[in-house]
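To whoever picks this up:

The parser on our side crashed when reading a file containing two proteins. I've narrowed it down to the boundary between the first structure block and the second sequence. Both blocks are reproduced below exactly, byte for byte. First block:
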Amino acid sequence: MANLMTRISRPVALAGGAAAAGLLMALTAAPPAVAATATTTPPECVQYYSSWRYTDVHNGCDVTVAVTVEYTDGQAAPCRVIEPGAWATFAGYGTQANYVTGLRTCEPATASGA
């Protein structure tokens, strides 16, 4: 066993140790999306229409909803309270093709007006 240890070069051993440490840190760190995902999908009567410049959200429900938009790159979007029959406008996907992946409900206490 001692002969096996002496056959591993120092750079290889250091790289392996660094890789193991990085893996351990990655496994123990909570991803940011998990911490912020204490929300649910809004009812089907809430629809979005996305273009390169704007994403319009329509509340076709009979109740007020608070929603936010999720993007492919994790871009932050405000939480907006939308009255029944009303619309709210969010950022679109822009020239970098940052597409909308869906809507999520959010806490009305942290929401800004539509």
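<<boundary where parser fails>>
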Amino acid sequence: MTETNGTPTGTPTGTDVFVVADAVAWEDLGGGVRRKILGWNPDMMMTRVAFEAGAIGALHRHPHRQCAVVESGVFDVTIDGRTQRLSAGDGYIVPSNVLHGVVAIEPGVLLDVFTPMREDFLA
């Protein structure tokens, strides 16, 4: 994926072990939210999700287990009816099939990891 001089040589594939973030395009999800799929294998997937201030990651549930770290910004994160304000360096864990969502209080970025991978994100 990257030559020895650090120049990206192509778009990452889901099976590569290295990801060059600049080689991955953002996907506009609407409502001030966009996502980059950084890498995956059948057991896990890593994504970066950027939110404008006030953008909402609507309450939802899925069978995947999820953990996330706040890379930047401030978010109100709701998991199973509990809400906590989190900022850069904080994180959270979502068990399988538990209702959860976020609201961006400030512009920010979340780094999400799912297990198993989110096949629906690749469709």
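After patching the parser it read the second block fine. Strands lie at 27-30, 33-41, 44-51, 56-60, 65-72, 74-79, 82-87, 91-94, 100-104, 108-115. Residues 1-12 have pLDDT under 50 and may be disordered.
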